[in-house]
Each structure stands twice: as C-alpha cells, then as structure tokens.
Amino acid sequence: MPQPFTVTPFPVIGAELRGIRLSEQSDTATRARLNALFVEHAVLVFRDQFLDAPQLLAASAIFGDVFPQHNARFAVPDCPMVHTISNAETMENGQRYIPGEGYHTDHSNDASPPKATMLSAVKLPSRGGDTQFVDMYRAYAGLPEAMKARLDGRRAVHVYQSSHSARKLPQLAEARRALVPDAVLQPLVLTHPESGRRALYLNPIRIEGILGMDDREALPLLNELLDHATQEKYQYRHVWQQGDVVIWDNRCLMHKANGDYDMTEERFLYRLMIKGVPLSH
Ligand code: SIN
Questions:
Q1: 109: Cβ below 6 Å to ligand 1?
Q2: Can you give the pTM of this predicted structure?
Q3: Atom of ligand 1 at shortest range from CA of 258
Q4: Atom 5 in ligand 1: which residue has the minimum CA distance?
Q5: Ligand 1: distance of its center to the CA of 234 in Å?
C-alpha cells in the first residue's frame, strides 16, 4: 500500500510533506511519487522525522546512491557515508567554521556532481540558523535575452577551492587529494537531466573562471549573475524545526547556511549527498 501523505507547495520553490515516515521501508509507488515530487519542487521538507545517521542513510536510498564526500573529515565514525554539520567545527587556523555559509551548490568540482543533498536536524539553535535556497530555473528565466545569448554554450572552470572565494574550505587530507579532480568544466547554463528545464549553474566558492574569457570580463559577469540569482524573489528560506529532514536538488538550486545565531547554542545536523550524472548545456 502506498504511504499516504500531504504535500503543501511553498510560494517560490519547495514543498512541505507531512504524514510520511522516512524511517519505514517505502513501497515502489511511494518511492516513485517522492522522486517525482523532488524533481517538481526541488526542495522537499519532511516534518517530524527525527532520523539518526543510519536511518538517514537508509531513507536516502529512495532517491539514489550515496555520493562520497570529497573531504572525509566530518564523517560519522560508525556510519561514514553520513557526515555531520556542527557549529563547533574549526578551521586549521582555529577560527570557527560554519559549513555551508555563502551561496553555493554542492561539489560542483566533481565531473558528476551530487544531484541532491539531504539533511536531518538533530540540534537547533533557539532562533536563526536557517538555510536559504534560490531557484536557478527562475533565475535563468528572469535574465534578459541578451544575457542568455551571452551565456549560451559557455563553460566555467570549477576547482575544490576558488582563489576568488571569500569563503575558505577546510583543506583536504593528503590521502583524499588524489581522488579529487584539479578542475572540471561545467556549463554556466545547464539542462536539468530529469526535468529538461534550463537553469543557471553557479558556484562562487568553486568557480575559478570562465573558459575562453578573460578574468576582467568573467569575474564581473559572475558577480552580476550571482547578484541576480540571489534576489529575494527567487528564494525559499527554510526555518528549521526539530525532526526536519530536507532534501534539495543541487542542479537547479543554490543554497547557503546562516551563522547568524548565538554560538553558545549548538546546531548539529546529519548530512549526505546523492550521486548525480555529468551535466550538460
Ligand atoms: C550545506 O551547505 O550543506 C549546509 C546547509 C546548512 O547547514 O544549513
């Protein structure tokens, strides 16, 4: 029997699902419906789940196979395909590290970037720490035709850490460096492999430049596109509730975490990513 649940779409992008229990084995029809909803809404918010790391891993199989994260530093010791997000982390220089700050899409420096990322909330601050998403379909559709023509066929160079990014990532351990490509080319405008819709594909943390374009032209262009894409009219802002599980589509969204809360309070989530396919124009 398919599991009954309600779906409430949000105004810009995303939908809230209530009534389904991700900790229970789902049947084929429920899995197919969830995958269709994922492609349609791009962010799915499952309330009242309270999943630990092995339960999150089991539930993620609804959407595909787990993508191994490039940096293994945050792996859960007895469930290493699941990672942690915690405001107790520090950078190599001892400064606090808030994972996911600044708009980005996940692991775009991989030849086949993860199609989705899934988080399970464990501990939340009493206020703040929201995750913001922007709809890159709408952002693309909202560009002037002349800009669309300028971007057509263009590819960006994505690396582990862009030299232009204000946000710095923790360094990769020596053993992982060989597994991570030096640079990959990704379309600036992609055709979503499942919906067939066109979306802007940006990542200020990973893009080093635009192939065949001088940085004096490319960097202002990338900043202009980022300013355009991150307008409030393209956003869904997720205010976390205890027990939430959220999955989002990295191919048509950018997202960012907010480090705007009282840092004496803990924010702790489990996280994993789902494998994707190579991206194309
Ligand atoms: C992430 O970028 O995956 C983290 C998002 C968050 O912690 O809100």
A1: no
A2: 0.94
A3: 8
A4: 257
A5: 18
Q: What are the percentages of helix, strand and coil residues in the chain, rounded to 5? A: 20, 30, 50
For the Cβ of 99 lying below 6 angstroms from any atom of ligand 1, the answer is: yes
Q: Which residues of 162-189 are buried (b: 16+ CB within 10 A; e: fewer)?
A: bebbebebeebeeebeeeeeeebebbbb
pLDDT digits (tens, 9 = 90+) for 28-79: 999 999 999 999 999 999 999 999 999 999 999 999 999 998 878 889 999 9
List, in order, residues 6 or more apart from 209 with CB less than 8 Å away.
156, 157, 215, 218, 219
Asked if residue 85 has its Cβ within 6 Å of ligand 1, the reply is: yes
Six token digits for residue 186: 């990704």
CB 197 within 8 A of CB 191: yes
- Tokens for 197, please give them: 């819709």
Pairwise CA distance, residues 246 & 13, whole Å: 13
Say yes or no: CB of residue 117 within 6 Å of ligand 1.
Answer: yes
Which amino acid, residue 157? Answer: V
Contact between 117 and 250 (Cβ < 8 Å): yes
List, in sequence order, every beta strand (DSSP E) within 21-147: 43-46, 66-67, 75-76, 79-86, 116-123, 131-135
| Neighbour order of strands in the sheet with 235-238 | 235-238, 131-135, 253-257
Q: Is 114 in the pocket of ligand 1 (CB under 6 A)?
A: no
The helix/strand/coil state of 183 is coil
Q: How far is 208 from 57, CA to CA, in rounded Å?
A: 33
pLDDT in tens, 214-266: 999 999 999 999 999 999 999 999 999 999 999 999 999 999 999 999 999 99
Tell me the domains of the chain and their CATH numbers.
6-274 (3.60.130.10)
